[in-house]
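Why does this matter for the project? Reviewers at the last site visit asked to see concrete outputs rather than summary tables. In response, this paragraph embeds two records directly. Each consists of the residue sequence and, immediately after it, the corresponding structure tokens. Nothing has been edited or filtered.
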Amino acid sequence: MSSSPDQLSIEVGGFPTVIRPMQAEAAEAPFSNNEYFFEVKWDGLRCLLFVGRDGEVRLQDRALRDVTYQFPEFGNLGGNLPPGTVLDGALVVTDEEGRPETGSLRRRLAGPAGGDQRPAAYLAFDLLYLEGRPLLRKPLYQRKKQLHKAVAAGRHLYAPRHIEGEGVELYEACLEQGLEGMMAKHRQSLYVPGQRSPFWLQVKAVKSDRFVVVGWMGSEPFDALVVAFYESGRLLPCGTVGGGFEPAVREELARRLRELRTEESPLEPPPIMVSPVNWVRPELVVAVRYSEWSPDGTLRFPIFDALRSEVHPAECTRQRPRVVLAGRTPPDSPSFYLTRFPF
């Protein structure tokens, strides 16, 4: 079914057919607070998992697209959850050492279903409906309690544990393990579909953000992408990205750029560029890894990471996380335990 990009949720017969996920804001620094739950931010595809009243499993990404057919291993998960259940979580594919591997996940999303591919796991961190009853207006601590009772771990489905109070310790453990970062969620927070809530905070250990493509430079297919971000409703340029493109991804990006090409710059006023720019409509979102922000507002040493077609361009705002020193997390601590993949 098709849905408006502004649609937050749709219900049929009292049970949702789509729900736009709740989003987090960026924290300025890692912190510890007894009013917050802290959990690992796994590097994967944000997805909602629906178990219909008939037990059929369906996966919906944050753009409200059905991606179930790409992951046939989830077809029999209905027996692990009560009918009428909706989970919020992440689809993750791991390497041989059990670390999240985004390259394998992207190949699964781009290629045909099935085949010789690494299996995926669904890591559930929230429970929105249970046996047809909505839980969105229940506080997080109650939803978490019911989540761990409802989810029977195994067969590609897991509900990772969180830690209370010790946010700095978990963040340092994530740094040591090379993980993306952590989430901090207020224990009393309600679930508001589509809202970017100050009661959910993300603290990134690796600098990687989403940006809007506004143009490209060089000869075809392209030499570099011109990227930008939103601030106070305006699109602001933040440099060019010229590395990290695999051949298949470069080809896909080139096709999309040709479709979006326009004669007018989407930036106001148009920036002064050292080379000619082929402008495009600001509809394409990419993830970029970089070392830091320069004083002039551009990215230093940016490297293309992924095409993020499930992300709405308006979500691309500047993030300002800070980093603390690592090396102080004992291997037998609860924080270190949470950074180990749950299967």
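We now turn to the second protein, recorded in exactly the same manner.
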Amino acid sequence: MNYSKKINWAFAAAITVSVCWLTGDIFVAGFDPNPDDYPLFSTTYSDRVDVEFATLMLEGSTPRLMFGALIGALTAPLLLPATWLVFQFFADKTKWYSIAVNWILLAGAVLSPLGHAGFFYVGEIYKAVYHTDQASHPYLLETGKGFMKMLNIAWGSAIGVLAVGWIAFAVCIILKKTLLPRWMALMTPFVLTLLIIPLKNLLPLPYSGWVGGAIFNIAYLLFFSTLLLLFRKRVLIKANN
């Protein structure tokens, strides 16, 4: 397979995984509930739970949450060629910063599936609290506390590592260490995420929940789509011929 075909397949993987993860985010966490509508958590157990997370997925059915978790986790291998694709846009792929950014983004990709799937378990345990007799709540709340700790560690680690990687890539773009124009630094996922966040508050339901749940992967899709447009101008092929 020649280099051009490898790039095309990598783009297909990047766009596909972005769409799948965006869809997964909407299904597993694309809600925007008012915590006050659930006084069991916002009042009764407010000192024992993260109220925002405890109420976030109460409206999601088990099949919906499961689909959202699995479509992301099971398509995660496609993040690897997507990361390889980003690496190809470095002007000199032998430099330490090129290799470092590539490995950081790879680490973030490997960490991501567990954090994404963890939302399902948090949603289900708090649904169980909400729909069961009060006598069972102490045990379920303690289990939920453990699930939240797991989610915070897994998802926090993935997001933290990816943030470092994408910020570093944006800096490399600005310093002309890549084949990309400087304005592409604004289109990197971390920067785009910051730009999209305010949009959530301007949208009505259910769209505010969809955007809120899928901000990072909306940014991924926009980034790789823009990268594809630049590639069609043969920017990468010219540099490697």
